[in-house]
Structures are given as structure tokens and as C-alpha cells.
Write a structure and sequence with these properties.
This protein has 5 helices and 7 strands; from the N terminus they run E-E-H-E-E-E-E-E-H-H-H-H. The protein is of the alpha+beta class.
């Protein structure tokens, strides 16, 4: 599959969210209360239930140009036409241009995919998974809380890379960089670096905690 296709271009309603990065296959619950987005959701529910999620950076006021399509899989209407929705990440996209700004943004987008891998990524995926398990184990020991990875943790390298990226907390700009990558190996390698650094930090804290007890 090509990295992007000029044929697969469509208009998509866009929903910028402060420091939120959605990845394919990952859930995103939302509480819709702004009038313009209530209009958006009511319109979407009458069509294909899809809209684009883009990360808004409140520090520099910039909206990312690469996002992820969200599909509404469940919704609940609340008083005053507010709405709770549960969405699931679908394809990634790049905004080519904005075609409308009001009452909400609509962009002309193209879908993007990872390049086909040039090597077998299973070993790299296994390394990332083991690092992830080490981080969870050390976090559980430090906090004295039970923590476990889900039984349905993805095993395919690309899907695993999305899962890991979506579960990095407090680093939206890093998540955005991972979302924009079109190289599964590069995404997994960067995640291995992040997880190794986190594991080493947690291991040092664990040693200190044990010494003080």
C-alpha cells in the first residue's frame, strides 16, 4: 500500500482537541457541549459517523496538520443537547487545505499509511513489549499497586506501535511526532528509546526505595 494516495481525498469535519492525539484502533470518549460541535455531531450522525481529530497545541496555538479519523461507535444524548460519545480511531490523514471554518472546520484531507516494512519487525516488537512489561512491573512495585497489561495487547508490530504511542501520558508533542511517522520500524525504535529511559529511571527509584526501607 502506498504511503498516501491522491485518489483517496475527501472532505472531513475536523475537531481540534488540546493535547489529545488519537491513534488508529484506539478508543476516545468525548463529552460534546460546545454549540458548534453539537451541530457537527448531529450532522455526522446523519452521515457516516466520521470526523477528524487534530491535536491543538495550547502553548503555540497551532493545530496539527496530521490527525486520525474517529468513528462514533456509541452516543448518549444529555440535557441541553449535550452528548457523550465513544469513538474509535480509524485511518490517519493529512490536511491539504481548509474548505470551511464555520460553524466548524472542514478540511480536504488525504489518507496516509505506513510504508511497507523493509525487514521483519517481530523481534523489534517483542523488544518493545518486554520493555513495556518492565515499565509496568517497576511502576507497580514503586506505587504498591496492582498493574497489568491488557490480555488483548496487540501483537502485530504496527498495531503495537499505535497502542504504545497512545498510552504515553503527558507528552502530546511526542505522541504527535509518532502519529506523523510513516515508518513502523522508526516508530517502534523511538518507543524503545522512551521505554528504556523510563525503565532505567524507575529502576533507579526502585533501588533507592528499597535502600530506604
Amino acid at each position: 500500500m502506498a504511503s498516501s494516495s491522491s485518489i483517496a481525498v475527501r472532505e472531513l469535519p475536523l475537531f481540534p482537541l488540546p493535547e489529545v492525539v488519537l491513534f488508529p484502533g484506539r478508543p476516545l470518549p468525548l463529552h460534546i457541549f460546545e454549540f458548534r460541535y453539537r451541530i457537527m455531531m448531529n450532522t455526522i450522525l446523519e452521515s457516516d459517523r466520521r470526523f477528524g481529530v487534530l491535536m491543538f497545541n495550547p502553548v503555540n496555538g497551532q493545530v496539527a496538520s496530521v490527525g486520525c479519523c474517529a468513528e462514533i461507535i456509541h452516543f448518549q444524548r444529555l440535557p441541553d443537547d449535550r452528548m457523550k460519545i465513544l469513538t474509535l480511531g480509524q485511518q490517519r490523514f493529512r490536511v491539504l487545505e481548509y474548505v470551511r471554518e464555520k460553524p466548524y472546520r472542514v478540511g480536504l484531507v488525504e489518507w496516509i499509511e505506513d510504508q511497507p516494512p523493509e525487514k521483519d519487525l517481530r523481534a523489534l516488537g517483542t523488544e518493545v513489549e518486554q520493555l513495556l512489561r518492565d515499565v509496568v512491573r517497576l511502576s507497580a512495585k514503586l506505587t504498591e499497586r496492582e498493574m497489568e497489561l491488557p490480555d488483548d495487547l496487540p501483537t502485530l508490530p504496527r498495531e503495537l506501535s499505535y497502542w504504545v504511542a497512545s498510552n504515553l501520558y503527558g507528552v502530546a508533542t511526542e505522541q504527535q511526532a509518532l502519529l506523523e511517522m510513516q515508518d513502523t520500524a522508526g516508530r517502534l525504535e523511538r518507543e524503545a528509546e522512551i521505554l528504556t529511559s523510563t525503565r532505567n529511571h524507575l529502576a533507579a527509584r526502585t533501588v533507592l526505595k528499597d535502600a530506604l526501607e
